[in-house]
Amino acid sequence: MFKEPMLAATLKDLQILPGQYHAEEKFDGHRLIVEVSSKWDLFGHPNVTAWSRNAIGRILPRHVREELVKLPPGTYDGELIVPGGHSFGVTELSNADTLVYVLFDVLELDGMGNDVTSYRYLERREMLQQIASRLQLPNGGLHLAVSTPVDSMEETIALRDAVWARNGEGLILKHVDSPYEVGKRSKAWRKIKQLKTAVLKVIGYHNGKLGPHSVLKLEDPEGNQTTVKWKDYTELDRLDADPESFIGRELRIEFQDRTPDGSYRHPRWDRWENE
Q1: pTM of the entire structure?
Q2: Could you write out the DSSP letters of every residue in 43-111?
Q3: In CATH, which of 3.30.470.30, 3.30.1490.100, 2.102.10.10, 3.40.50.720 is domain 7-193?
């Protein structure tokens, strides 16, 4: 049965004390909830069903599925990735044979009272480590995410910098006592992402939920276009009061990465230039 994944909050005002947090790499792939059923299909194999974070069914590559069927019946959380690549590469046919499902949590597990979301992170992690040991992971299309204890912000920054140095996305900090909060964005998990910036010009607006000027249409010097939502109500009031005066102004945005066609991934409003 599909369960909405737990989401991480942004890293703000977090004090890291010894013994409280583990860090896992934040992968740049497709988040998938996977159910391995105790019921067998017509070919004598356990049924494996995968969903996106929005409950959309996903078809898995054969080599990934062949490893997933070896898991004990249960529901798992993880990321389908191109090793060393980015999320837009997951759907490229040329990468199909290289895809890996990185396992990082378990929500249900037969033989453990079924629903294990109320268990502490360290307890769920121990379950996964026992499974990984039995299956001798990593193995082909199935890996277990590395979980590293961090006892200070200095240790966290060093680990973050190592991930960024190899072009990784960042870290997820998980409190050792955190349950798995289905469908919630929880401060028990904190994300550290590498963001880039660019300056684009305002060329127009799209109608959004908060009115005709709540989504800005932007263009960079190469002609690539993107959109960002209003930053806060103060800025939205300014835009509504005199929208034409902002056409042509430069806005700095933050974004995660650029796709091969020049698109901005996950752009968001940062600040006006020269203001």
Answers
A1: 0.77
A2: TSSEEEEEEETTS-EEPPPHHHHHHHTTSPSEEEEEEEE-TTS-GGGTT-GGGGGG-EEEEEEEEEETT
A3: 3.30.470.30
